[in-house]
Write a structure and sequence with these properties.
The structure is a single chain. By secondary structure, the protein is mainly alpha-helical. It is 70% helix and 0% strand. The chain has helices at residues 8-30, 35-75, 94-101. Helix 1 (8-30) runs antiparallel to helix 2 and helix 2 crosses helix 3 (94-101). The longest helix has 41 residues, at 35-75.
């Protein structure tokens, strides 16, 4: 469902640019750092990138959850689980959720 969200390409492009900027920043600053400083700075950059990705993905996940809820309410479903957790039975609403995201 996430890959079908219309705004996911924006997130991918933004993250690609963020990662490139972080690599450039690391390479520029790491030249004058000790190994320990490089490791600490690298971890800080990774944390910053993870936070940025979470920041960008939260609205998408909220949009997906709203689409899931809308389909579930329409069908009278009280519980929705990922299809890989269902051994037998159930109703797959994936395509309806994807259609809801694209409207």
């Amino acid at each position: 469902v996430v890959t079908s969200c219309p705004t996911i390409d924006n997130v991918r492009n933004t993250m690609k640019n963020e990662i490139a900027a972080a690599e450039k920043d690391f390479n520029a600053k790491a030249k004058s750092m000790s190994d320990q400083e490089k490791q600490k700075f690298g971890q800080q950059l990774q944390t910053r990138l993870m936070n940025r990705e979470n920041e960008l993905m939260t609205p998408i996940l909220n949009q997906i959850n709203a689409a899931i809820k809308k389909v579930a309410d329409k069908k009278g479903l009280e519980v929705v689980v990922h299809k890989t957790t269902v051994v037998f039975g159930g109703v797959d609403i994936t395509e309806e959720v994807i259609k809801g995201l694209k409207q």
